[in-house]
Amino acid sequence: MPRVLRFTALLLITALSAVSLPANSKSKSRQDSANDPRLVGAFRRPAENGWTFVHLVGPPSQIGFQHGYLLAAEIEDAVKVTNLELAHDTNKDWQFFRDAAQNMMWPHIEAEYREELQGIADGASAAGVKVDLWDIVALNGAEEWGYYVRQYDKEHGIKSTAAVVGDHCSAFVATGSYTKDGRVVIAHNNWSSYLDGSRWTIIFDVIPARGLHFIMDGFPGLIHSGDDFGINSAGIVITETTISGFFGYDANGVPEFVRGRKAMQYSKSIDDFARIMERGNNGGYANDWLVADINKNEIASLELGLKNVTLERKKDGYFVSSNFPINEKLTREETDFDVHDPSLSANARHIRWEQLMAQYKGNIDLAAAEKFESDHYDTYDRKIEPDERTLCGHVDLSPRGSKAWEPPYGTAGAVQNKATTAAMAAKMQLVASAGHACGIDFKAESHLQAHPEFSWEKDLLRNMDSHPWTEFEPSK
Question: In this structure, are 398 and 298 located in the same domain?
């Protein structure tokens, strides 16, 4: 098992000693911005084992300003990456998404999160980065733009080039007779393009003026986790995996990134979580959400389609998720996914999850969770082989090449991992591993030489080294 390192949080201190200037801040005006009273109490740490820890505190506009200022360079880069991926995947330019952010999403974003989004834009601008509000809203909508574009193209008689929703993430939650101490264990790895996934390495520790203190992994510029793993101070732990092949989008609904963030910030129970996620559901980023209430030792699966929603809960058992649709009616009406093809990634990983739950029943703990997320057993080929069918996903290493994940999303696989237990979550602690949990590093140059079909990524594709599991906890 990889070595686990623990980094305890710094105490809240004044802006002059706590705030680090972004890497691109050199001018006198940017130095002056570091004295902005909105930055008091906020800080970021130098990267540790691939992760950057960012502490934010205050009312919405202040949290946003801190976020934008402290991660300005990363946000500038994130917009470039998201722009590149969307242009390739949808054949739409960035202005299309800026316009949709303003005209379609903005009317359905409540005041609290409008203020935070504006704050991010203001903070990044104060640090010298040329972004505005619509760039930030468009960036936050990244996970649901594919759903919107397919619906938009259909309504406008356009032959859509937007890819169908593919496989993103492997996760489980278990409790009762399945875990070593009878209490909750939960883990998740983020499957993504290596373009954006190599940047999905922020640990956000947020103390909002209203709502609950929470800690989550995240991507620069996003107000929600986005991939999603988080713990709040009421003992609610949240994660998810995407429903493969899902289609449908309601442009009059509330963006998923707003509902996802609100649920993290305000849920004190599984019922709260389900209510917040369902209210105004727009179908964007349709997921099977796995939720744990450590106080009640209860776990749940909320499969949230647009038309079909299923909430199941247990106090003894498990839920596993790897992008396969569960409800038969949802599968039939809202996806084009073949649940009967065992060669498909989502199905092969589902089978593996069931095998591991049976094998480890009564012995699931943090060490087991870490082991699961680095698993390389391909249930279709019945051998250990890191590829698109394994829980630790390596689409780039698949013997099926770029056809392994249809349609091709580019260079992709598991990009980071998180886990926690009930005892840890009570202290809002989690462990996280950046890169592949198995220890296999990804090297951009050699990959592009072997796969010139991904040359469109070359200017922004990075190496993605694997890092040891590292423990994080919130600032006091």
Answer: yes
Count the domains in the chain. Answer: 2
Domain span at residue 327? 170-201+221-246+255-472
375: phi then psi, degrees, rounded to nearest 5 = -75, 140
Rounded CA-CA distance 448/440 in Å is 17
> With contact defined as beta carbons under 8 Å apart, do 229 and 418 qualify?
yes
Residue 274 placed within a domain: yes
Q: Is residue 425 part of a domain?
A: yes
Task: Kindly report, residue by residue over 27-82, the tens digit of the pLDDT.
Answer: 445 556 778 999 999 999 999 999 999 999 999 999 999 999 999 999 999 999 99
Summarize pLDDT for 253-299 with one digit per residue, the tens. 999 999 999 999 999 999 999 999 999 999 999 999 999 999 999 99
Name which of 386, 352, 387, 394 is nearest 372 in CA terms.
Answer: 352
Q: What is the pTM of this model?
A: 0.92
Tokens of 96: 């299309």
Tokens 């991507």: give the residue.
Answer: 219
Please tell me whether residues 58 and 84 are part of one structural domain.
Answer: yes
| Rounded-to-integer distance, Cα 294 and Cα 269, Å | 10
- Tell me the one-letter amino acid at 194: Y
